[in-house]
Amino acid sequence: MKRKNVIDLDRFSDAEIRIILETAKEMKKFIQGDVKKLDALKGKSIVTLFYEPSTRTRTSFELAGKYLGADVVNITSGNSSVVKGESLRDTLYTIEAMGIDAVVIRHPSEGAADIAEKVYEKKTPREKRPLVINAGDGAHAHPTQALLDIFTIEQHFKQLTGLKVAIIGDILHSRVARSDIIGMRQMGMEVHLAGPKTLLPRFLDQEPGIFIHEHLEDALEDADVINVLRIQLERQAAGFFPTTREYAKFFGLNEDRLKLAKPDAIVLHPGPQNMGLEISPKVAYSDRSKIRDQVQNGVAIRMAVLLLTLCGGE
Amino acid sequence: MILIQNARVIDPANSFDEISDVLIEDKKISRIEKQIDARDLENVQRIDASGKILAPGLVDMHAHLREPGQESKENFIDGAKSAALGGFTTVATMPNTNPVVDNAALVRSMKARAAEAIIKIEIIGAMTKNQKGEQLAEMLDMIDAGAVAFSDDGHFVDNARIFLNALDYLAPTGKLAICHEEETSLVEGGSMNEGHRSAVFGVKGRPTVAEDIAVARDCLLAEYSGGRVHIAHISSARSVEIVRDAKSRGVHVTAEATPHHLTMTEDLVTLSDTMTKVNPPLRTLKDVNAVVAGLKDGTIDCIVTDHSPHAFEEKDREYNRAPSGFPGLTRALALLIRKLVREGKISMPQLISKMTFEPAKIFGLLDKGIGTLSIGTPADLVLIAPNFNPITETPVDLTMCDGKILVCDGKLVD
């Protein structure tokens, strides 16, 4: 996996995903210890280039890099040359010229990480090309989120094959759902999608190996995992659903709906949550909820990804 | 005098397709005969065209040459050169410029500017003021100034009343309303065809139903008003059916298709290549096959390029932020010969007809001698090498406009 860009999970075999999960296990033990500093990535420099606000993804990448001994610099669009109108290409050239080893990019446009990869492809020799790690591009992909979701599920169930996952809510605008679908299907899980029909992508039913339901209940029934997606409030103004009140009532995950799932089912949410909208506080703060585990696992997964791609895990 | 010998002369306007010699004299086509004896002629430049096809200069009724105001993308002079390299001698340019060409003064100044270019450039005026779809533009005045047709291309005229008024107002003039058919609210923010691929990419789509609704509305309004509607760059299978049905009922509707909608599908779209972004978007194979079938059976009258160049830095952006469109004039013929003629979908004479006689006919250019090789018409013609190698060569061997050779051996003559 050394020098492999992380654009989306469709470029990773199940064996590679397995290696990442195993490495993340080690990393998790390490971050639960007292002295959180390794020198595996000593001398490596990583830039996080964020064109969208983020708490957990950006911070967890930064901490992951620092725990491994790398130097990490954060660029957010608000206080960079982006506000002066610099193009994505030029920003990428600029940070590359400073000698970075990896760029972690978050961008509102689908394909931004693909573009970054293409911009750096011309750089020779190959060993000098900065690695590109996608931290979320529009509604397209968020591979490390999918990996941490899968890792969290495996930590709980100790295995993955055959588990039924229900992803509910705004599938249409969700990069998390798209990467989850790819990764979970690859690891032998059964992926079910549900939400208001306005927020289910038309034509996604042509994608093999996933199940799309018009009724939330069908997706939740006997689920092992429920992944609740965040509802972006501006979607109401765009006419996807009438009111947040109606959304919470008919599509939010509450205790009653949770009962449809298996008794030991777990609840995930990529955050940040709209408490009381897509998820009720009683569910979010219950012991079924693994939402805070996800955050810690996020650091472990990102350490594993950085370690494996930047130095092959040595 | 120029004598082109032994060419396969294809002139759809006169249903002519024979090996002949063609004599060009005083900027006009003076003789087309089985054999013209050059010994009787003085100062004659002879061109051997054995194995080649001589056709009327190609006519493109839908291009964006970007003047006035968007010269960083293209200008008339350079656009005309690209056109000549592609075998075109007449190109109509769209008014979605800055400012929008929506009045006679601008049409006149663009006509004057066009006179500096090496090919013939026709000016299409805006149908509504500033292409806003709110108030009719001064179309009669623009016709007097020389506008060839009218269009709010780039935008669908959302207001049905305004569009009906435009049709009624234009009906007595016989000028065409060229209609960009995508219902605005269904395509806003969309970057590619809405389908399985856009769903997987998470990219906002532009559904075929947006085009179908618009085509259906405008066919119905054409029927109601009796005015003439010309459907721009048709791309959806259902839209082709709707036009076919309207034509069968005698509605005054015509349609055009682009080389890309005749040959390319959404499978080409990748998120890091904005050169695949165009409106209407590249569709599915089912749509492409329907557009080809429509071209063949006459539902679609002509081929246009929708040549839409952008500056590098404008197109070099994130997929959803990049502007739509790409250049088409230089490579249109090569693409169409390779993907339609060589694959047996349409014949060479059919292709030539759709790129010369048919567009000239529906846009009323035959009277100017455009789109035909009739004796006495201006010598606008193209010599096509049908067996060109698509990787290394162009099919355009020679382009001539008003008797002047613009392109020779595939290269611009300076």
At the fourth CATH level, what is the homologous superfamily of the largest domain in chain B? Metal-dependent hydrolases
Oligomeric state of the chains?
heterodimer
Work out the number of β strands of chain B.
19
- Any idea what the radius of gyration of chain B is? 21 Å
Order of helices and strands of chain A: HEHEHEHEHEHEEHEHHHEHH
Major sheet strand order of chain A: 7-6-5-8-9
What is the SS-derived class of chain B? alpha/beta
Q: Tell me the fraction of residues in β-strands of chain B, as a range.
A: 15-25%
User: What number of structural domains do the residues of chain A give?
Assistant: 2
Query: What is Rg of chain A?
Result: 19 Å
- What is the number of independent domains of chain B? 2
Count of alpha and pi helical runs of chain A: 12
CATH class of the largest domain in chain B: Alpha Beta
- Please state the average pLDDT score of chain B: 97
